[in-house]
Write a structure and sequence with these properties.
Layout (H helix, E strand, L loop, with lengths): L6 E2 L12 E3 L6 E2 L12 E3 L6 E2 L12 E3 L6 E2 L12 E4 L5 E2 L12 E4 L5 E2 L11 E6 L3 H5 L8 E6 L3 E7 L4 E6 L3 E9 L8 E9 L5 E6 L6 E6 L1
Parallel strand pairs: 1-3, 2-4, 5-7, 6-8, 7-9, 8-10, 9-11, 10-12, 12-13
Antiparallel strand pairs: 14-19, 15-18, 16-17, 16-19
Length: 235
């Protein structure tokens, strides 16, 4: 899709059963509803970082879609957006999400894990109808109490708390080294890497400790060039 694209109209790819992958450029500012409806072969999608809403029935019937990274800019997931995505296993929800409308994730029968990264959004009725019971829901420890007392949540979540990692830097390398400049205290750093920035599964490849207070230090992380994408997290 051209980088100059700014709008994708409703039902643009409706029923394109042979479409397997879609990358929407960050130039896109507006998406219509039903854009990928009934794209039964669609497995992977990269959504633009510029959108605020996942429109109604956007992925309705995308029965091969297994995972989705919802952009951090999104504040609302509209009705039936992921209805019938029967292979969808994992969802990462953005930190400023405010509302998930009715039936947004209904009949996502393989759904096993949801990661919430901010305060609890409002969840309308039947959002997870047809999804498994006791879905693992990872929520920030700081927000756990709010999630446990949020009445709009259905009684199908198994809540677990986590401490969100502080990402210091993120980069792409063509050679065998990744560099980061920082002002450290006594801190452990974890290097997480993937072959594929958009769709890859991140794995820990190395841990590094530094104790140097009050000055900027340049650290070199030597790696095999087989992995191209790296980020640094504070443990």
């Amino acid at each position: 899709m051209p980088e100059s694209t700014t709008r994708i109209f409703p039902c643009a790819f409706w029923g394109c059963s042979s479409l397997k992958e879609a990358v929407l450029p960050n130039s896109v500012r507006w998406l219509g509803d039903c854009v990928f409806m009934d794209c039964v072969g669609l497995e992977r999608v990269k959504l633009p970082d510029s959108i605020n809403i996942i429109q109604s029935q956007f992925f309705n019937g995308c029965s091969s879609l297994k995972t989705i990274e919802i952009p951090k800019s999104v504040t609302k997931v509209e009705s039936a957006a992921f209805f019938g995505c029967s292979e969808l296993q994992r969802i990462n929800l953005p930190p400023h999400l405010e509302l998930i409308e009715v039936s947004a994730f209904s009949w996502c029968s393989a759904l096993s894990r949801i990661i919430f990264t901010g305060p609890p959004p409002i969840i309308e009725g039947s959002v997870f109808r047809g999804a498994p019971e006791n879905i693992k829901a990872l929520v920030p420890f700081a927000q756990m109490e709010s999630y446990l007392h949020e009445e709009s949540f259905e009684d199908r979540f198994n809540f677990e708390g986590y401490d969100p990692p502080k990402i210091l830097n993120f980069g792409f390398v063509n050679d065998a080294a990744f560099f980061i400049e920082h002002s450290p205290g006594e801190t452990n750093y974890q290097v997480v890497a993937s072959d594929d920035m958009v769709f890859g599964n991140w794995i820990t490849v190395e841990e590094y400790s530094v104790s140097k207070i009050g000055s900027i230090e340049r650290i070199e992380f030597p790696f095999s060039a087989s992995r191209k994408f790296f980020r640094i997290e504070v443990k």
